[in-house]
Design a protein that fits this description.
644 residues, Beta-Lactamase, 20 strands, 24% strand
Length: 644
């Protein structure tokens, strides 16, 4: 500018304008140059953007750009429109939360709170189409700017088929593992034994149950030979079974073998062997399934022994026994049944009961057997069978198969019962006489039995009816009388067999005499359990005895008179008679003798009269006694307030 100013003389204002014009020109030139450069870059960038946009839109995987702040979708490609079912306009109005199911939004928010690197593999997410269908995508994203806003470019790769395949594989694997565990648990929990042996008879597989039964470890058993563990005779059988299995694959061959565990305890095992074929139909192993039948074999042996014992018992019992099935056919009869019903088991076994004994249809056999079978109850009955002229006592019990019947011949028992009944009637006729009281009491003073006369008398005395089991020491009795009877019973309970006499004065002041007999009652072991009592009226007998005693007293008195009073005058008479002078009747002394003889004779006459009077009294009493009747066992009229 100085050079120009030196050539062209310019004033200061002009010079200032020149300086400003120079600046403007520089700016314009610079702007034109920069514009050209920018325009060139812009043309290139626009070409690149167009190319990028084409790559974005034509990508076969769904892609979108979203704003990091608002999460709104700013750009979406055609694949996203097609995959998600929304229109482009609808998608551009949505956020990335809205393309997910509600339950996945929280996980998205948690992910957005994290620090996400520029390029990120965000993993697998569940997205939702417009129709609500869910599908799985693997998300890849990168930080970018779009229209000046911080954004993220996202590409979603649909892996739903892979996820479904994985899920199916997972389900299948779970099922397979479950089945394997189930099969293993079945094998391990089997109480039956599972083994495999090769064609040489050596173990290739055993289950835990077999190891436990042999009390050996798996490792040890797998080194052993199945055949060598058996007795020699069983080993030969197993070898034969192996040969049969190999010759007949698929055919199950059973065999029972005797083995021993490590302790030497014998075990009986029922085995079933079958050959196993490979895919190429090659028979390589024999599979065996076994179960411990030691207890079964022992039980069967015991059952056989028990059955034989039952048969022996049934054959030895005194009852006739038979078993009948539900079709009324005989399945078993014992010897006593044959004897009682005059039949042979060979001829009646398997035949119909009603055919063998047709008369039983009209007897209780038919109705009672039917009732037992239909109602499944036991029945008991007694029946007279005219054909055999015998009484039978029958008991029938329902079973699962039909009926079991027990028959007893009670003909003699029936006859004995008839005789017992007649004897009982005769005895009742004797003990129920109204003239005697008969009763029995136990050691607790309870009434055991009594005849009608005793019960009637007690009802009259007590005002209540005495029953069996009631106390005979009723509180209504006088305490002194109760104590007296306790003493009488106790004597009998001590084993004394005795009788006592007593008297009572009735309401009309009549004296009644009675006799009570006590007889101890003993059981089979000889122990006293009570006493039997018998009371009878002995009043007339007692009065007869009293009068006899009175007569005896009078006779004693007569005898005394005869032996004392009569002797004096008789002696005097004899003396006077001896003093009489038979040679000289006129002797004056004879007059005195005769006078004294007259006096003595009068005295004797008085004595004789006294004897005659007493004799007349005895004769009068004898006349009265001749009219008395001896009534043994007349009923005692006991006033309730009097002592017995």
């Amino acid at each position: 500018m100085q050079k120009i100013n030196s050539i062209i003389q310019l004033d200061a204002q002009q010079l200032n304008w020149l300086e400003q014009g120079k600046g403007y020109l520089f700016v314009i030139a610079t702007a034109l140059i920069f514009y050209g450069f920018i325009h060139r870059i812009f043309l290139k960038t626009e070409k690149d953007n167009k190319h990028f946009r084409q790559m974005f839109d034509d990508n076969p995987n769904p892609m979108w750009v979203y704003d990091k702040e608002s999460l709104r979708l700013l750009a979406v490609n055609q694949a996203m429109v097609a995959e998600y079912g929304y229109s482009r306009q609808e998608l551009l109005q949505m956020t990335i939360k809205q393309i997910r199911p509600p339950e996945s939004v929280e996980a998205l928010e948690n992910r957005l709170q994290e620090k996400i690197p520029t390029y990120s593999k965000s993993g697998i997410w569940c997205h939702q189409r417009k129709n609500g269908e869910l599908f799985y995508v693997r998300i890849y994203s990168n930080a970018t700017e779009y229209k000046g806003f911080p954004c993220r470019l996202v590409m979603a790769y649909d892996i739903t088929p892979i996820i479904q395949a994985e899920q199916e594989n997972r389900v299948l694997n779970n099922l397979l593992e479950k089945k394997q565990r189930y099969l293993r648990s079945i094998i391990d929990s089997q109480t039956t034994f599972l083994i495999r042996i090769n064609t040489q008879g050596r173990y290739t597989f055993v289950n835990p149950a077999f190891c436990q039964k042999l009390d050996c470890k798996l490792e040890f058993i797998l080194t052993q030979s199945f055949i060598n563990d058996l007795p020699s005779e069983d080993g030969a059988k197993v070898q034969k079974v192996i040969d049969q299995c190999l010759q007949q694959p698929g055919i199950v061959i059973p065999i029972m073998l005797h083995q021993s565990n490590s302790q030497g305890i014998p075990i009986v095992i029922q085995w079933e062997f079958v050959a196993i074929k490979t895919v190429k139909e090659k028979k390589t192993e024999i599979q065996g399934m076994g179960r411990d039948v030691t207890e079964e074999v022992e039980s069967q042996t015991k059952i056989k022994e028990y059955t034989q014992r039952i048969n022996d018992i049934l054959e030895s019992i005194t009852d006739g026994f038979c078993a009948i099935d539900k079709n009324w056919n005989f399945t078993y009869v014992n010897k006593e049944f044959e004897r009682l019903l005059y039949s042979q088991r060979e001829s009646i076994m398997g035949t119909l009961f009603w055919e063998q004994f047709p008369e039983s249809v009209d007897l209780l056999f038919y109705s009672e057997f039917k009732r037992a079978m239909q109602e499944q109850i036991k029945v008991h009955f007694e029946e007279y069978y005219p054909r055999f002229q015998a009484w039978f006592k029958v008991a029938a019990y329902p079973t699962l198969d039909g009926l079991t019947v027990y028959i007893q011949d009670i003909t003699q028992e029936k006859k004995a019962q008839e005789k017992d009944f007649e004897d009982s009637q005769n005895l009742n006729a004797l003990i129920n006489t109204p003239s005697a009281l008969i009763w029995s009491v136990n050691t607790k003073y309870q009434l055991i039995s009594a005849n009608k006369a005793y019960l009637a008398q007690m009802t009259q005395n007590l005002g209540v009816s005495l029953q069996k089991g009631d106390s005979v020491l009723n509180p209504k009795l006088n305490p002194e009388l109760i104590n007296k009877w306790i003493d009488l019973y106790q004597r009998a309970f001590q084993g004394e067999n005795y009788s006592v006499e007593d008297k009572v004065i009735t309401a009309d002041n009549t004296v009644v005499y009675f006799e009570i007999s006590f007889n101890p009652i003993r059981d089979r072991d000889g122990r006293i359990t009570g006493t039997g009592c018998f009371s009878r009226d002995i009043t007339e007998n007692k009065l007869h005895q009293i009068k006899i005693q009175e007569q005896n007293e009078k006779l004693k008195e007569i005898a005394w008179i005869q032996s004392h009073k009569v002797r004096v005058p008789v002696a005097n008479i004899l003396g006077l008679v001896n003093a009489f002078n038979y040679q000289d009747v006129t002797d004056p002394f004879n007059v005195e003798v005769l006078s004294n003889l007259h006096t003595v004779t009068n005295d004797l006459d008085l004595i004789i009269r006294e004897i005659v009077d007493k004799t007349n009294e005895i004769e009068d009493n004898s006349s009265d006694l001749s009219n008395l009747r001896l009534m043994l066992g007349d009923r005692i009229d006991i006033h309730p307030t009097r002592r017995m």
